[in-house]
Amino acid sequence: MDYRAIIFDLDGTLIDHVAAAGRAARTWSRELGFTGDQTDRWFEIERRWFDAYERGLVSHPEQRRGRTREFTGDDTLTDAECDEIFGRFLTLYREAWTAFPDAEPALRRALATGARVGVLTNSVAEVQSAKLRRTGLDLPGVRLLASGDLGVAKPRPECYRKALSILGVAPHEALMVGDSHVNDVAGPRSAGMTAVWLNREGLPAVAGESGIRSLDEFLRT
Ligand SMILES: [Mg+2]
């Protein structure tokens, strides 16, 4: 089957977000005066606030501030103070960005099919486009579609609809791949797209589907 659009998720799919965020959180928490490994606590806080963002309950800046107040244990921090403290985490996170080795070859195979190639990500364009540049994944023809610009996040159906309309294709002409079964597989399928689950960690099958373990398996058949 030939697709007119091939859409990749970014974090966990093309970029090793967990490794980068973990490394940043370790340094940041030490700088904030915490002892011991705070990464599990940070990831738990991130997951909860990011879920709230994805469900449309808080804005993207609000989830950052919520995470900062909760992580520091100081809910008297002003928005400006939160932005400054979180800004330091972002600097450390940026320095740790790394592409998965299978990412660039997969993007190149997608481009070689002649399809429009997009990266649909639940974050703000400023951070995500810098991430593509820094890791060398900003290949000509790869279009960034950030939820911060779309005004709606995965897995809400309008998010896929808006992304597809920017790419100028119908749902049945589009293929999506990503590491989140909810955001990158179930959501796109509900919107009428084809989707492949990238299961890098070998997580248990979802509804009998175990996915592919690497992007090296993507666009090979
Ligand atoms: Mg992801």
Concise synopsis of the structure shown:
With 221 residues, the protein is α/β, with parallel strands linked by helices. It has helices at 17-31, 39-54, 60-72, 79-95, 103-112, 125-134, 147-150, 157-167, 181-190, and strands spanning 5-8, 116-121, 142-146, 174-178, 194-197. The longest helix is centred in the middle third of the chain and has 17 residues, at 79-95.
Structure characteristics:
221 residues; alpha/beta; DNA polymerase, domain 1; 2 domains; five-stranded parallel sheet; 9 helices; 48% helix; binds magnesium ion; hydrolase activity; S-2-haloacid_dehalogenase; HAD-like_sf; HAD family hydrolase
Which small molecules are bound? magnesium ion
CATH class of the largest domain: Alpha Beta
Bulk shape: globular
Mean pLDDT: 96
Whole-number tally of structural domains: 2
Distance from first to last alpha carbon: 9 Å
SSE arrangement, N to C: EHHHHHEHEHHEHE
Strand content: 5-15%
In this structure, how is the largest beta sheet organized? 5 strands, parallel
Helical percent range? Answer: 40-55%
The CATH superfamily of the largest domain turns out to be HAD superfamily/HAD-like
Any idea what the CATH architecture of the largest domain is?
3-Layer(aba) Sandwich
Pfam families: Hydrolase (PF00702)
Organism: Corynebacterium pygosceleis
Keywords: Hydrolase
InterPro entries: HAD-like_sf (IPR036412), HAD-SF_hydro_IA (IPR006439), HAD_sf (IPR023214), S-2-haloacid_dehalogenase (IPR051540)
